[in-house]
């Protein structure tokens, strides 16, 4: 089975739950007292998508302002960006719009953008209506889900959606080709052995 | 601001004459009532005792109030309004022209703290009992807080509460515009008027071409440190020397620099004088909190030396060799840490020829790793500045634990190339592989600090030994060794008490006015002997019944034991590698590297 490496970065305001989403996805665990990320944290997870394996190289960036200038280092070359906001904080949704703008100006041209409205388990305190966010996401052709890292709602789904949206064209051009080549080499060497 | 300073000048004329330029302005309550009065303004309850003493000086108080007021007003926006909201109980007069309300304030203060002296005395007890809030890291640091620890983080503390006032050591950081940047306890917003007054004190003394350094009151020492656009203030009841407290403030400053660099802080404040630096430090308060807890509980800071985990020489060498082999261009430092202590450190040759790694930089790195659990997930890549190495530049740090989920052995790789993550991560894989084949992790897990009983001197309870005799040629990191604190120093409060005794001895030894070489100090529950020579600095703690002759024999034995064990207790020969990409340089580096490795007593690997 072909293996594709997909670089994904998480962006968004501090405290919206980027690390929690990654932890839920990679480790399937949740820590309510998680510390703010320092710099950026790198993790990987491989999932199967149709007849391919997708290895997500996840860059979980720090939301604090002092690390803001580093963001290009992480989104450069990314296949996808998950921009996270907190549905209980209007401000974080405004920050999200700034990230979308920045990605559009400086990000990779074909980057898949996913918008995750996190903390949907506490919708009592909601400040951002789901419809507003959905409309906004549609207007920029982004994936949209409301998630809860705490209750494991829609976390895997975000990554599944990303897998679906990754252009297949790339895959045809690169990965299967390499796989084919390897296969032939293997058979050749076997022949020589016999 | 100028006219304001003229007011201040009148008040302070006397002091200015007494104290020469550049001289320390020490203000004792008795000698200069005026400034002590102004400190009562600081007194969001910090100096209720001086308030009590000075309520006669109404006119001076109003002068001061007049001076403070415009200073705060010159600050746009929030400050003034917040002050008004806080009202009189804050102790800062709101109506400078009228002395009446201030008197009322003072009265309030007094009744507020009617039994303050008694409480101050009781406080010492509370501290000994170690009633604290923050638990794990050092419960001793906060005394007698009534609030439920589970519900209240120290940042939500009520800054008007007695419990807030009773903290053993407060640390405040503010900008030159008087904007709060950090407070160890309580929220910065709630303290903005207090910090405004601190800044008024600083700029007032500054206007007389002088520098405020410290203020002494009965129970407290206030130490000021101005570094560039930042002002750091420590209010301590810990009886530490001013010099020690200033050293601790310097660590706080360095930790801030390590996150932002000195250059960017200067640039920010040049550009915008009243910038709120908390925007950039948001989320990093824990690192500063952690540093202050460590400064209180770990003698490394006092001794300005690094404590490494005792390891057999062969194991430490094999770890160094593993690190030496896993290199990539622009890698500068490879550091292995276990249980928050140094295992080994390998350094880029050409870089370290120019500058040596200072213990303070290592302390900041150790604190960064210890203060946040954020490093326990995945591999971290973050910019970090080593302020003593170069205060204006960032290194890029790769941080990853080698033994998840236990997270005791941590690898730290510092590169100068911000894009080098994948290359550096590859070094980690190599290190991990080599450590698996050599079973290093299980060997490290067995390593632990030692017991003083191993020395075999019956009356010796504890010691700290810092050698100076390392040949400069090696550009060795300053290190010290010390056994575990065991009974009777096993409880947190007893540990702190012993550390306080050491701090006292240290302050006597390093006193600027009257330095000492040898102190034999008979305390209530133990006898201490501190000794500094050209070769080492030694602090020992004996049982109280030891005789002087006995102690001296014991020290001779101890020194002999340390000499015998020094290969295990210290990193003797810091290993080096060469990763400079420049081919001519690297060939030269490789050559001298080889030479060096024989120098270092390693078998040549090449």
From TrEMBL, chain A:
<dbReference type="InterPro" id="IPR027417">
    <property type="entry name" value="P-loop_NTPase"/>
</dbReference>
<keyword id="KW-0967">Endosome</keyword>
<keyword id="KW-0472">Membrane</keyword>
<keyword id="KW-0342">GTP-binding</keyword>
<keyword id="KW-0449">Lipoprotein</keyword>
<dbReference type="Pfam" id="PF00071">
    <property type="entry name" value="Ras"/>
</dbReference>
<dbReference type="InterPro" id="IPR005225">
    <property type="entry name" value="Small_GTP-bd"/>
</dbReference>
<keyword id="KW-0968">Cytoplasmic vesicle</keyword>
<dbReference type="GO" id="GO:0003924">
    <property type="term" value="F:GTPase activity"/>
</dbReference>
<dbReference type="GO" id="GO:0005525">
    <property type="term" value="F:GTP binding"/>
</dbReference>
<keyword id="KW-0547">Nucleotide-binding</keyword>
<dbReference type="GO" id="GO:0030670">
    <property type="term" value="C:phagocytic vesicle membrane"/>
</dbReference>
<comment type="similarity">
    <text>Belongs to the small GTPase superfamily. Rab family.</text>
</comment>
<dbReference type="GO" id="GO:0005769">
    <property type="term" value="C:early endosome"/>
</dbReference>
<dbReference type="InterPro" id="IPR001806">
    <property type="entry name" value="Small_GTPase"/>
</dbReference>
<keyword id="KW-0636">Prenylation</keyword>
<protein>
    <recommendedName>
        <fullName>Ras-related protein Rab-22A</fullName>
    </recommendedName>
</protein>
Automatic annotation (TrEMBL), chain B:
<feature type="compositionally biased region" description="Acidic residues">
    <location>
        <begin position="99"/>
        <end position="112"/>
    </location>
</feature>
<feature type="region of interest" description="Disordered">
    <location>
        <begin position="1"/>
        <end position="31"/>
    </location>
</feature>
<comment type="function">
    <text>Plays an important role in membrane trafficking through the secretory apparatus.</text>
</comment>
<feature type="compositionally biased region" description="Polar residues">
    <location>
        <begin position="578"/>
        <end position="589"/>
    </location>
</feature>
<feature type="compositionally biased region" description="Basic and acidic residues">
    <location>
        <begin position="75"/>
        <end position="86"/>
    </location>
</feature>
<feature type="region of interest" description="Disordered">
    <location>
        <begin position="47"/>
        <end position="112"/>
    </location>
</feature>
<feature type="compositionally biased region" description="Low complexity">
    <location>
        <begin position="57"/>
        <end position="67"/>
    </location>
</feature>
<feature type="region of interest" description="Disordered">
    <location>
        <begin position="578"/>
        <end position="606"/>
    </location>
</feature>
<dbReference type="InterPro" id="IPR043970">
    <property type="entry name" value="FUZ/MON1/HPS1_longin_3"/>
</dbReference>
<feature type="domain" description="FUZ/MON1/HPS1 first Longin">
    <location>
        <begin position="169"/>
        <end position="291"/>
    </location>
</feature>
<dbReference type="Pfam" id="PF19037">
    <property type="entry name" value="Fuz_longin_2"/>
</dbReference>
<dbReference type="Pfam" id="PF19036">
    <property type="entry name" value="Fuz_longin_1"/>
</dbReference>
<feature type="domain" description="FUZ/MON1/HPS1 third Longin">
    <location>
        <begin position="460"/>
        <end position="566"/>
    </location>
</feature>
<dbReference type="InterPro" id="IPR004353">
    <property type="entry name" value="Mon1"/>
</dbReference>
<dbReference type="InterPro" id="IPR043971">
    <property type="entry name" value="FUZ/MON1/HPS1_longin_2"/>
</dbReference>
<feature type="domain" description="FUZ/MON1/HPS1 second Longin">
    <location>
        <begin position="330"/>
        <end position="431"/>
    </location>
</feature>
<protein>
    <recommendedName>
        <fullName>Vacuolar fusion protein MON1 homolog</fullName>
    </recommendedName>
</protein>
<dbReference type="Pfam" id="PF19038">
    <property type="entry name" value="Fuz_longin_3"/>
</dbReference>
<dbReference type="GO" id="GO:0035658">
    <property type="term" value="C:Mon1-Ccz1 complex"/>
</dbReference>
<dbReference type="GO" id="GO:0006623">
    <property type="term" value="P:protein targeting to vacuole"/>
</dbReference>
<dbReference type="InterPro" id="IPR043972">
    <property type="entry name" value="FUZ/MON1/HPS1_longin_1"/>
</dbReference>
<feature type="compositionally biased region" description="Basic and acidic residues">
    <location>
        <begin position="1"/>
        <end position="27"/>
    </location>
</feature>
